[in-house]
Design brief:
CBS-domain, 3-stranded mixed β-sheet
Length: 155
Amino acid sequence: MHRMMRRKLAAVVDATMRCLSRVARRLGGPALATVPVSAVMLSRLVTVSAEQPIEDVVQLLVGGRHAQLPVLVDGTPVGVVTRADLATGLRESGPHAPLAAAPRHDVVMVAPSDSLSDVFHRLQEAPEAVALVVDRGEPVGLLTYDHLVEYIEAA
């Protein structure tokens, strides 16, 4: 079941990346190269610790407007969890297990001044990852495929 979901996710990501590539070609490389990540990132960021109980993190996602939460270990970003990751963690490890027991997505670390073009290419290399915007060692924002697509389509 998990493999089938990964294949479907990979197919969706592949289709999204093809769409982004077409839009980027239509806009032209320079258009994406001149926009910094800070102009597009989701900046209302709540971070969680890998030691927190899964049930506490579920409450943050359910009660807030967040779709992903960066996971920190000793202040260092190690991944991003989604609602689906937490559902799997609850099912497999229970509500009192630490968040470290749940699956998570890799992060691509970027700076607020990095261009959308650079981030786009880095996300192409790691299609299941989420771009985590880090400034002076602190996570300050996220950039997802969906958000990047919305921005490009609106441009």
